[in-house]
Amino acid sequence: MSEDLLLIPGPVTVSKDVLKAQSIQSLSHTHPKFISIFQSVLKNLRVLFKSTNPKDQGIVISGSGTLGWDITGSNLVYPDDDVLVLSTGFFSDKFAKALEVYDANVDILTAPVGGINSLQEVETQLKKKKYSVITITHVDTSTAVTQNLANLSKIIKKVSPESLIVIDGVCSVAVEDIEFTKWGLDYVLTGSQKAIGIPPGLSIGFISERAIEKALKRPKQSTYFASLPLWLPILQNYEAGKPSYFATPSIQLINALKVSLDEILNGGLEERFIKSKRVAQDFKKRLTNELGLQLVSLDNEYSASGLTGVYFPEGINGPDFLNSAYKRGVVFAGGIHTAIQPKYFRVGHMGVSALDDSLGHIEKAFDVIKESLAELGYKKIE
Amino acid sequence: MSEDLLLIPGPVTVSKDVLKAQSIQSLSHTHPKFISIFQSVLKNLRVLFKSTNPKDQGIVISGSGTLGWDITGSNLVYPDDDVLVLSTGFFSDKFAKALEVYDANVDILTAPVGGINSLQEVETQLKKKKYSVITITHVDTSTAVTQNLANLSKIIKKVSPESLIVIDGVCSVAVEDIEFTKWGLDYVLTGSQKAIGIPPGLSIGFISERAIEKALKRPKQSTYFASLPLWLPILQNYEAGKPSYFATPSIQLINALKVSLDEILNGGLEERFIKSKRVAQDFKKRLTNELGLQLVSLDNEYSASGLTGVYFPEGINGPDFLNSAYKRGVVFAGGIHTAIQPKYFRVGHMGVSALDDSLGHIEKAFDVIKESLAELGYKKIE
């Protein structure tokens, strides 16, 4: 199979060592060889999320990022709980829909497309009701807008300290800084195929001691597969180096995750966040300055490090542009935010694509955008 | 990583081509390249399950076999539905527990350990209540007991034709014959790491037109991630060759599944079932006749083609035996049925291990069992 350059906001291009780790022969899920792999993963998640409370817990379950929404709805939200969703796009709204399935009373505070709500707006909303759970989509993959978790958590701790803070980190974990303990977060959920840099197939997360307590005290279970009371002892056992069984874990994906977390942590977390941000900001600036394009995110200050949403210039047809790029060997993603769907495209620049300069992915992305637009007759208006 | 010979009832040793397919670089989940892979998988599931109704549907979702229990409970069982579970072991009972989470009223008809209930017992039970759903664990991985689905479905169709028939096929699909249409089955669920022969990480299934109707008419959704109303249009689109998105599918695992289904179907389904059965029966006979061991399944007639449960002889310590086998390079599985857990072990012989003679896996399994028992002082009593 010939390889195109995949530059969408997930699945992302993964490293060679990850692909190798992904193709080991199967192991027994209760054998010491696999236990030590899974143990390493669970310990390293503590480092990745910067948690200092040993009673917090890393979560790795076969599934996808979406499963994290069900884990939230079926464990952390009790029926009729009031939940506040801070929405910065399509995925924030889908999270709200998932929670409604679990009988949450959801209020959505919706930011303008490409923007965020002001801290004042959030504070005002928080004062209206006692929310049991507040969800924040750290980076909404439909808009490339990054929420400022440090500031938001500060306000939540001030106005509504008992609210659980749940972060959809699908497009942020391992590319944006997350301070689990310092910011007092309760559950961060993500998938495997984004900045964590392995193939899709895992729901990965990190949960706080107090969120665990709420999950364990839940009066009635509403899920089996996504049940934290059933999974937590299993995960705790694996982390302690003991065999344990609930449902068969994804051996190869967890081995790939081990290799990827080793790569991430060996490379230095801070260095990773700084470089990802620099590469992203340079790329965004070139798109706006050199090509005269308009980004979906309204302010570079909060435009995501892991992806960029770009409006098509007047007169450029979306599918034609994506085909033209594909002819040049690069796969970008179309728009997905319902309000602006046909008007923009998305470029993923997470993991090795941003961090390994020798691959030349970002240069290539820029050149292909420029060439494809030129082919379709676009001229920058000076 | 040095490779031991993995002979447990899942995850199973997978073929070289499957491992290769498992390690392709990521693809966009909406790109024609991936769509044609997923399309092939969904079409081939119709052949594997022998379905002739185009309104039935193959299901492939990131997860594990266990997720199929939630798919059942949250889609096909309405709250307060009466459900009958035919139990032949640990996994049948766990399925019952999973359904209770979704507010099913579950009756369990429990067979003796290693045995099955008579058709007369099943018929008597069916006449006691109108069951909306009847679950049958085709092969319970804790006992290696195979239910006769042809006979059971005949009785159900006679006594209670409106009951949905749900088959846990985790340890049977692709190693035991399943006639979805002929037997009038409604949902067969399995995982990827058993006889289908790929790494763990997918919930694979096949669902009937009438089960789909029941899922779509459900008064209230009780799951998001496992929701058939949300997944069905996506799966139907992929099968029709159209891009579609709900949650990111496991690109590499689905590519591995494509390769494995091609291998399975190209090799001939009937030939596969016949050879798997012959290899299994020969193996079981050698264990009982040559080594004087006792199987967990009480009758060879219904002992599974994909695995064997074997009691340790008097005086043999389970962990010592498994360690001794491991020193010889083979990984077997311990017991898991709560009533007899420390008294037996399990040998998986699914997929390439049974079908590719050149690998010599079954010979090796037998020799290692014999040598390990001898090392621990076992002598066959003539």
UniProtKB/TrEMBL annotation, chains A, B:
Keywords: Aminotransferase, Pyridoxal phosphate, Transferase
Protein name in the entry: alanine--glyoxylate transaminase
Residues found modified as N6-(pyridoxal phosphate)lysine: K194
Pfam families: Aminotran_5 (PF00266)
Domain of life: Eukaryota
Coiled-coil boundaries: none
GO molecular function terms listed in the Swiss-Prot or TrEMBL record: alanine-glyoxylate transaminase activity; L-serine-pyruvate transaminase activity
Record has Transferase as a keyword: yes
GO biological process terms on file: glycine biosynthetic process, by transamination of glyoxylate
Catalytic class of the enzyme: transferase
GO CC annotation, single: peroxisome
Similarity comment: family membership: Belongs to the class-V pyridoxal-phosphate-dependent aminotransferase family.
SUPFAM superfamilies recorded: PLP-dependent transferases (SSF53383)
Binding positions (substrate): R346
InterPro entries from the UniProt entry: Aminotrans_V_dom (IPR000192), PyrdxlP-dep_Trfase (IPR015424), PyrdxlP-dep_Trfase_major (IPR015421), PyrdxlP-dep_Trfase_small (IPR015422), SP_NH2Trfase/AEP_transaminase (IPR024169)
Cofactor(s) the protein needs: pyridoxal 5'-phosphate
EC number: 2.6.1.44
